[in-house]
Design a protein that fits this description.
2 domains; 10 helices; elongated; alpha+beta; 205 residues; Arc Repressor Mutant, subunit A; Beta Polymerase, domain 2
Length: 205
């Protein structure tokens, strides 16, 4: 699934692009604005808007010579539209719930890379940084089970593979000395999931 554009898992049409933009805003938008944000032609977007207004899922109001459009959040289908638009937020919530409930807690866990930035594609990995406690053996059955279960959950939730970067706590300093690109990505766009915050973790490097 393209986490940045989750609607494309169901449809790649203009309709889904327009609904995505409308779901992300409570302010009325003109057809031209919607076309710009959706990256579609004004003519194509206008045809879609006319049809969505006919179905009642989008409301239209006139302001002078301009029509403004909003998602009708009272419509029966509006919750489904909002749920799909909020797929990345839901992914973060599920990751936090899952990792936060581990029997062997992490030192740190975060989402980084394209999934954190919201600019990935259907083939992008869901990149996760997991820092293992110093006193936990990498081959510990319980620990390995947690990592494997997380990878399985990610692919079930999204269809994307989990790119899990697992680092032992004792090797954090080596990351800095080795100038690992992971450190730069985490520094730029990480979303904290469990354990020590990214800010505190980076302060230790």
């Amino acid at each position: 699934m393209d986490v940045s554009k989750p609607f494309t898992a169901i449809s790649t049409g203009v309709d889904t692009d327009v609904l995505m933009v409308l779901a992300g805003s409570t302010n009325p938008r003109s057809g031209r604005e919607l076309a710009r944000h959706a990256g579609r032609s004004s003519t194509g977007v206008q045809h879609v808007l006319d049809r969505l207004v006919d179905h009642g899922i989008v409301t239209r109001q006139g302001t002078g010579r301009t029509f403004l459009y909003t998602l009708n959040r009272d419509h029966l289908l509006a919750p489904a539209v909002e749920q799909m638009a909020g797929a990345r937020v839901e992914l973060v919530r599920r990751l936090r719930d899952s990792i936060g409930g581990w029997d062997t807690p992490v030192v740190h866990a975060s989402l980084f890379g394209s999934a954190a930035r919201g600019d990935g594609g259907a083939d992008s990995d869901i990149d996760l940084l997991v820092v293992r406690p110093a006193d936990v053996d990498p081959d510990d059955a319980k620990w390995r089970g947690q990592i494997d279960d997380l990878a399985d959950l990610v692919i079930r939730w999204t269809g994307n593979h989990a790119g899990i970067v697992e680092i032992p706590e004792g090797e954090l300093l080596r990351l800095r000395k080795g100038r690992s690109p992971v450190v730069n990505e985490v520094r730029e766009d990480a979303i904290d999931l469990a354990g020590e915050s990214t800010r505190k973790l980076l302060a230790r490097l």
